[in-house]
Amino acid sequence: MAGVRALQKRLARLEDAGKPKPSLIAVWFGSFDAWVEQAVLPGVESGALAADDMVDLVACLRRWETDGTWGQAYAG
User: Which domain of life is it from (predicted)?
Assistant: First the structure.
């Protein structure tokens, strides 16, 4: 029976390894959208951040999250 449990644990680790890793933004803020609402939008509204630049930056970072670029950063 112990062999079955060990196999189940190993399988769970393999399945977890195949899942994409969340970005640090998602880890820190809970989700990417929460980061945009809590940090980006107030910065744009106050003039501290340039709206046109932030649109491009948010789009790039969101793409990194969906295409696995953030997960590659963890591989190092």
Answer: Bacteria
Structure tokens at 30: 């809970």
Structure tokens at 69: 């670029």
The structure's pTM equals: 0.64
- What's the rounded Cα separation, in Å, for the pair 14 and 21? 14
**Per-residue pLDDT tens digits for 37-62:** 999 999 999 999 999 999 999 999 98
Measured from the Cβ of residue 59, the count of other Cβ atoms closer than 10 Å reads 10
- Tokens in use for 13? 């680790």
Residues across the chain: 76
Token output for 55? 């649109």
Mean pLDDT of the region 22-34: 87
Instruction: Output the six-digit token pair for 45.
Output: 């509204």
| 70 touches 22 (CB < 8 A) | yes
